Amino acid sequence: MPKKKPYVRKTLPELERLWQEAALVRPKEAPLGESGEIPQRLQNFMLYLQRQQPLKRPEDMYCFIMYDIENNKVRRLMAKYLLQKGCVRVQKSVFFGRFHRKLQREVLDVLRKMQECYENEDTILVLPVGEDMLNSLTCIGKLFELELMTAHKHTLFF
Protein backbone atom coordinates (compact mmCIF):
# COMPACT_ATOMS: atom_id res chain seq x y z
CA MET A 1 0.00 0.00 0.00
CA PRO A 2 1.47 3.39 -0.97
CA LYS A 3 2.28 5.79 1.81
CA LYS A 4 0.24 8.96 2.13
CA LYS A 5 1.95 12.25 1.54
CA PRO A 6 2.38 14.32 4.66
CA TYR A 7 0.00 17.26 4.93
CA VAL A 8 1.66 20.52 3.93
CA ARG A 9 -0.17 23.67 4.94
CA LYS A 10 -0.57 26.05 2.01
CA THR A 11 -0.11 29.77 2.38
CA LEU A 12 -2.99 32.18 1.85
CA PRO A 13 -1.74 33.47 -1.55
CA GLU A 14 -1.41 29.88 -2.76
CA LEU A 15 -4.96 29.09 -1.64
CA GLU A 16 -6.34 32.21 -3.35
CA ARG A 17 -4.57 31.26 -6.56
CA LEU A 18 -5.97 27.71 -6.41
CA TRP A 19 -9.49 28.99 -5.70
CA GLN A 20 -9.28 31.39 -8.64
CA GLU A 21 -8.13 28.56 -10.90
CA ALA A 22 -11.07 26.45 -9.70
CA ALA A 23 -13.39 29.44 -10.36
CA LEU A 24 -14.51 29.49 -6.74
CA VAL A 25 -13.33 33.05 -6.28
CA ARG A 26 -13.32 35.66 -9.00
CA PRO A 27 -10.15 37.66 -9.44
CA LYS A 28 -10.25 40.98 -7.68
CA GLU A 29 -10.93 43.86 -10.04
CA ALA A 30 -12.22 47.36 -9.78
CA PRO A 31 -15.88 47.96 -10.64
CA LEU A 32 -14.83 50.30 -13.43
CA GLY A 33 -12.07 49.53 -15.86
CA GLU A 34 -9.00 51.72 -16.17
CA SER A 35 -10.66 53.64 -18.97
CA GLY A 36 -13.73 54.31 -16.79
CA GLU A 37 -16.08 51.89 -18.57
CA ILE A 38 -18.13 49.10 -17.03
CA PRO A 39 -16.52 45.65 -17.33
CA GLN A 40 -18.16 43.20 -19.72
CA ARG A 41 -19.31 40.93 -16.87
CA LEU A 42 -21.34 43.75 -15.30
CA GLN A 43 -22.81 44.71 -18.67
CA ASN A 44 -23.92 41.10 -19.21
CA PHE A 45 -25.48 41.05 -15.76
CA MET A 46 -27.38 44.28 -16.43
CA LEU A 47 -28.69 42.86 -19.74
CA TYR A 48 -29.77 39.70 -17.92
CA LEU A 49 -31.75 41.75 -15.39
CA GLN A 50 -33.45 43.72 -18.16
CA ARG A 51 -34.53 40.53 -19.96
CA GLN A 52 -36.11 39.01 -16.84
CA GLN A 53 -39.82 38.33 -16.79
CA PRO A 54 -42.04 40.83 -15.03
CA LEU A 55 -42.47 40.18 -11.32
CA LYS A 56 -46.09 39.13 -11.70
CA ARG A 57 -47.30 36.87 -14.49
CA PRO A 58 -50.85 37.43 -15.77
CA GLU A 59 -52.01 34.06 -14.41
CA ASP A 60 -50.75 34.84 -10.89
CA MET A 61 -53.15 36.20 -8.32
CA TYR A 62 -52.91 37.52 -4.79
CA CYS A 63 -55.31 36.54 -2.04
CA PHE A 64 -55.83 36.79 1.68
CA ILE A 65 -56.94 33.61 3.46
CA MET A 66 -58.60 34.19 6.82
CA TYR A 67 -60.10 31.59 9.10
CA ASP A 68 -61.90 31.23 12.41
CA ILE A 69 -61.40 27.61 13.51
CA GLU A 70 -62.18 26.39 17.03
CA ASN A 71 -60.28 23.08 16.97
CA ASN A 72 -56.57 23.61 17.74
CA LYS A 73 -55.40 20.57 15.77
CA VAL A 74 -57.31 21.57 12.63
CA ARG A 75 -56.13 25.17 13.00
CA ARG A 76 -52.49 24.02 13.23
CA LEU A 77 -52.90 21.74 10.19
CA MET A 78 -54.46 24.58 8.22
CA ALA A 79 -51.62 26.97 9.09
CA LYS A 80 -48.99 24.34 8.26
CA TYR A 81 -50.64 23.60 4.90
CA LEU A 82 -50.84 27.28 3.93
CA LEU A 83 -47.18 27.83 4.86
CA GLN A 84 -46.20 24.81 2.71
CA LYS A 85 -48.05 26.33 -0.24
CA GLY A 86 -46.00 29.52 0.03
CA CYS A 87 -48.36 31.75 1.98
CA VAL A 88 -47.01 34.32 4.41
CA ARG A 89 -48.57 34.68 7.84
CA VAL A 90 -49.83 38.22 8.35
CA GLN A 91 -51.62 37.63 11.64
CA LYS A 92 -52.45 34.53 13.72
CA SER A 93 -55.33 33.50 11.46
CA VAL A 94 -54.64 35.59 8.34
CA PHE A 95 -52.36 34.49 5.50
CA PHE A 96 -51.34 36.24 2.30
CA GLY A 97 -50.55 34.21 -0.79
CA ARG A 98 -49.48 34.66 -4.37
CA PHE A 99 -50.78 31.76 -6.40
CA HIS A 100 -50.95 30.58 -9.95
CA ARG A 101 -54.63 30.11 -10.83
CA LYS A 102 -54.33 26.30 -10.85
CA LEU A 103 -52.61 26.28 -7.47
CA GLN A 104 -55.27 28.61 -6.08
CA ARG A 105 -58.02 26.19 -7.18
CA GLU A 106 -56.09 23.30 -5.60
CA VAL A 107 -55.72 25.19 -2.31
CA LEU A 108 -59.45 26.05 -2.31
CA ASP A 109 -60.37 22.39 -2.89
CA VAL A 110 -58.17 21.25 -0.02
CA LEU A 111 -59.61 23.91 2.29
CA ARG A 112 -63.16 22.83 1.36
CA LYS A 113 -62.29 19.19 2.10
CA MET A 114 -60.76 20.16 5.44
CA GLN A 115 -63.95 22.04 6.28
CA GLU A 116 -66.19 19.10 5.33
CA CYS A 117 -64.22 16.50 7.32
CA TYR A 118 -65.98 17.17 10.61
CA GLU A 119 -69.03 18.94 11.98
CA ASN A 120 -68.20 22.50 12.81
CA GLU A 121 -69.24 26.09 12.70
CA ASP A 122 -65.86 27.29 11.46
CA THR A 123 -65.37 29.92 8.78
CA ILE A 124 -62.71 30.15 6.08
CA LEU A 125 -62.61 33.28 3.93
CA VAL A 126 -60.56 33.52 0.73
CA LEU A 127 -60.36 37.08 -0.52
CA PRO A 128 -58.78 37.61 -3.98
CA VAL A 129 -57.03 40.98 -4.15
CA GLY A 130 -56.09 42.97 -7.22
CA GLU A 131 -52.72 44.62 -7.60
CA ASP A 132 -54.29 48.08 -7.52
CA MET A 133 -55.91 47.25 -4.18
CA LEU A 134 -52.56 46.06 -2.79
CA ASN A 135 -50.89 49.29 -3.85
CA SER A 136 -53.49 51.30 -1.95
CA LEU A 137 -53.20 49.11 1.17
CA THR A 138 -52.77 51.04 4.41
CA CYS A 139 -51.17 49.34 7.39
CA ILE A 140 -51.70 50.60 10.92
CA GLY A 141 -49.51 48.99 13.57
CA LYS A 142 -47.02 46.24 12.78
CA LEU A 143 -45.20 46.84 9.49
CA PHE A 144 -46.61 44.86 6.55
CA GLU A 145 -43.74 44.21 4.10
CA LEU A 146 -45.74 44.25 0.87
CA GLU A 147 -42.71 44.10 -1.46
CA LEU A 148 -41.37 41.02 0.31
CA MET A 149 -44.74 39.30 0.27
CA THR A 150 -45.47 39.91 -3.41
CA ALA A 151 -41.97 39.07 -4.68
CA HIS A 152 -41.07 35.67 -6.10
CA LYS A 153 -39.46 33.30 -3.66
CA HIS A 154 -35.88 32.48 -4.66
CA THR A 155 -33.65 29.70 -3.45
CA LEU A 156 -29.88 29.98 -3.42
CA PHE A 157 -27.67 26.91 -3.37
CA PHE A 158 -24.10 27.16 -2.17
Tell me briefly what this model is.
The chain contains six helices and four strands. The protein has 158 residues and is of the alpha+beta class.
Total DSSP E strands = 4
Major sheet characteristics: 4 strands, antiparallel
Q: What is the name of the CATH architecture of the domain at 60-134?
A: 2-Layer Sandwich
What is the oligomer described by this structure?
single chain
Name the helix and strand elements from N-terminus to C-terminus, one letter apiece: HHEHEEHEHH
Give me the CATH fold name of the domain at 60-134: Alpha-Beta Plaits
Structural class from helices and strands? Answer: alpha+beta
Using only C-alpha atoms, the radius of gyration works out to 25 Å
* Helix proportion range: 25-40%
Uncertain residue segments: none
Strand content: 15-25%
Mean pLDDT: 76
CATH class of the domain at 60-134: Alpha Beta
**Count of DSSP helices?**
6
Strand order of the largest sheet: 2-3-1-4
Give the termini distance in whole angstroms: 36 Å
Silhouette? elongated
